[in-house]
Amino acid sequence: MIPEEVLKKPLITEKMTWLGEEKNQYGFIVDRNANKLQVKAAVEKMYGVTVKAVNTQNMVGKPKTRYTKTGIYRGQTRPFKKAFVTLADNDTIDFFSNI
Fold first, then answer.
1. CA atoms within 13 A on the CB side of 23
2. pTM given for the model
3. What phi and psi, each to the nearest 5 degrees, are found at residue 81?
């Protein structure tokens, strides 16, 4: 897989910001078929860093219900895969450098 296809977008949350500062971990939404080796290669190629470890987590879709004038609509959100990447001690990723 091409690195642009493996990594869909970075996770920018308060928890991920804290993990980036304290434990040098960064989170990404990745392709559901990507494995840890593909995620590691994609992060190293796109950001020019050394990856120490990769942890992945499959998220299932949550059920959602909307109540409207015409009736009740039921559905669910799409499932996705998260990857948590731990970098070497001297490496960092700055997501906000292009703003």
1. 13
2. 0.85
3. -125, 135
User: What residue ranges define each of the domains in the chain, with the CATH number in brackets?
Assistant: 3-87 (3.30.70.330)
pLDDT tens-place values along the chain, 99 residues long = 777 789 999 999 999 999 999 999 999 999 999 999 999 999 999 999 999 999 999 999 999 999 999 999 999 999 999 999 999 988 888 887 766
Sign of CA dihedral 51, 92, 59, 77: negative
| Rounded Cα gap, residues 51 and 56, in angstroms | 14
* Six-digit token string for 73: 């609509």
**What residue has token string 């799409």?**
78
The H or E element spanning position 85 is strand 80-87
